[in-house]
Design brief:
- The complex is a heterodimer of chains A (95) and B (482).
- Chain A is mainly alpha-helical and 95 residues long.
- Chain A has helices at 5-14, 21-38, 73-77; strands at 83-84, 87-88.
- In chain B, helix 7 (214-224) runs antiparallel to helix 15 (456-468), helix 9 (299-314) crosses helix 11 (347-360) and helix 9 crosses helix 12 (365-389).
- Classes of the chains: A mainly alpha (95), B alpha/beta (482).
């Protein structure tokens, strides 16, 4: 598949990334090459093959619904760029 | 003493030939003097290492690895220490807790010398995508050490630590181990807890040891492994004594040559080294047969859907809000997300996030993501069939030896194909290792051994027996002789 500028722009938007003009051409070319490589899989007959999401065919383990982690909010929030009263601050969303 | 194996170090410490503090100081001095040539470390932990070594000398850090100085790939959260994953995004991230691997190795008495350099978020095969500049190969500083655990591999090879941790999503332990001439083991998926290990592709990521010998890898793996309630994908299986059984001879061992790993693309000199290594195994009593893994050529295509898809989800957490890099003076929330991520991520990481977003997007999901998962099952089935006939599979780790810095950095496909022989065992979740098997043009060549599920003991035994009868693992780059 030939990746176009529109595809790169859409993917950048979905992934909340910026792509500037100098990067755009490089991404168009490299993503096209990568998808061409990926499309080599089209030669494989996968009819009736069950998709494999995980190497171990195990189920999620369950545990008793008990609190096991201590409250570390203050320690964790020290890593944040901006907090106030135990909340994370971001630019105003609603005027 | 910096070229000694962990087993030798433990004996020396026990016999009082030197103390853990003397050894730790020796490594720290070497890092100080020599690492500017290799850039293997991102962070040195001199003060805490010397304190821990003193404790070990006083008998206050007992365990399997008491007093042994090691390094951690900078992907493992280490409490109170910057844990960057080689990215600007986490340049300011001081981990509030330690990864299970870090805790387990500390509980075994190991000393942490520092955190090693890596490709950004483990996405790379050359260490050139690190925000902290590329690592150089101790065998030739104009060449790459491989990646993504290139800092760990270079540090072990250059005698800047006794052993190190690494992670392997598509070959990131084995390929740098091969290119730097050390031993590197990727365990069965789930053998080692992923808790506190910064995620790249969660169904593929697995931590493992990078060491000077297979016996050291067995010791390290024993200390690292085990079920962990904090990682629901960790295997609830007993951890065997990986060192026991290493001395069992190879008589009657069934070895399969991965047929497709010797087809086009493999450097002829690398092939010669691998075939000589196979002859060594045969001389030790193994029987050799050829095994076909017919979907091998589709492993790289499947991987470059599955790994980017998982990475696009895992890296969504870096939004400039809770931790990590935040841009200056964001205009609005969208500007905050986009500019923080643009400034924080390097180009290869952004490319993979976009490829993953594409593979998961409406209209393309079936053709790309579902298809890749189906191919993944066929790749696994190839191995299941092969392991009905043989006990271990062997082949090269990488199509060539270490390449020049910059040689492939603008050619993603050529870089991705570096992992053509390593990716399939990640997709299938099988254990695999690389051991030094010889040289091509003075550069190390690694032999890959792939085992069945939870077959670490078998591949470690084959590797150990090989190392009992060869000296490649005792051949060090000249820098390590200084």
């Amino acid at each position: 598949m030939k990746v176009t500028r529109d595809v790169v722009e859409t993917m950048a938007n979905l992934a909340q990334l910026k792509v500037d003009e100098t990067e755009m051409q490089e991404y168009v070319a490299s993503m096209t090459r990568i998808l061409n490589l990926v499309e080599e899989m089209d030669a494989v007959n996968t009819n009736d093959i069950e998709p494999m999401a995980h190497p171990l065919e195990t189920v999620q383990r369950l545990r008793p619904d008990e609190v096991t982690e201590p409250d570390q909010r203050d320690a964790i929030q020290e890593l944040a760029p901006e907090t106030q009263d135990g909340l994370y601050l971001v630019p105003r969303i609603i005027e | 003493m910096h070229n000694k194996s962990i087993v030798e170090i433990l004996d020396d410490l026990k016999q009082g030939r030197y103390s853990s503090k003397e050894l730790t100081l020796h490594y720290l001095e070497r890092i100080e003097q020599l690492d500017s040539r290799f850039n293997a470390y991102i962070t040195q932990l001199s003060t805490s290492a010397l304190e821990a070594a003193e404790q070990a000398d006083e008998g206050k850090r007992p365990g399997l690895l008491s007093g042994v100085p090691i390094a951690h790939k900078d992907i493992f959260c280490t409490e109170g220490v910057r844990t960057s994953a080689g990215s600007r995004m986490l340049d300011n991230f001081i981990a509030p807790y330690s990864a299970t691997v870090v805790e387990n190795l500390a509980a075994a008495g190991a000393i942490t010398l520092g955190k090693t350099n890596m490709d950004e978020f483990a996405m790379g095969s050359s260490n050139e995508t690190s925000f902290y500049k590329n690592v150089r190969n101790p065998w030739d500083v104009d060449r790459v050490p491989g990646g993504s655990s290139g800092g760990s591999a270079a540090a072990v090879a250059a005698g800047l630590c006794s052993a190190a941790t690494g992670t392997d999503t598509g070959g990131s332990i084995r390929q740098p181990a091969s290119m730097c001439g050390i031993t590197g083991l990727k365990p069965t998926y789930g053998r080692v807890s992923r808790w506190g290990m910064i995620a790249f592709a969660s169904s593929l990521d697995q931590a493992g040891p990078m060491t000077k010998t297979a016996e050291d890898a067995a010791l390290m793996l024993a200390a690292m492994s085990g079920a962990d309630p904090r990682d629901s994908t960790s295997l609830d299986e007993p951890v065997p004594d990986y060192r026991s059984g290493l001395n069992e001879p190879l008589d009657g061992l069934r070895v399969g040559l991965c047929k497709e790993y010797f087809e086009e693309g493999l450097d002829t000199q690398v092939e010669t080294v691998i075939m000589e290594a196979v002859q060594v195994l045969e001389s030790l009593g193994a029987t050799i047969s050829e095994q076909s893994l017919s979907h091998t050529r589709y492993s790289v295509p499947a991987y470059y859907v599955i790994a980017p898809a998982e990475c696009s989800a895992n890296l969504a957490r870096y939004d400039g809000v809770r931790f990590g890099h935040r841009c200056d003076a964001p205009r609005d929330i969208e500007d905050l997300y986009k500019r923080s991520r643009d400034e924080g991520f390097g180009r290869e990481v952004k490319r993979r996030i976009m490829v993953g977003s594409f593979a998961l997007s409406a209209g393309y999901y079936d053709a790309y993501y579902k298809k890749a998962q189906q191919v993944r099952r066929l790749i696994k089935n190839d191995f299941v069939e092969a392991f009905r006939e043989v006990d271990v599979l062997v082949g090269p780790v990488s199509p060539s030896t270490a390449f020049k810095i910059g040689e492939k950095s603008d050619d993603q496909i050529s870089m991705y194909l570096q992992d053509i022989y390593t990716i399939a065992s990640n997709l299938a979740g099988l254990p695999a290792l690389s051991i030094p098997a010889g040289f091509s043009n003075d550069l190390p060549v690694g032999l890959q051994l792939i085992g069945n599920y939870l077959g670490e003991q078998t591949i470690l035994r084959v590797a150990h027996q090989f190392q009992q009868h060869t000296d490649w693992h005792r051949t060090f780059p000249s820098i390590a002789e200084e």
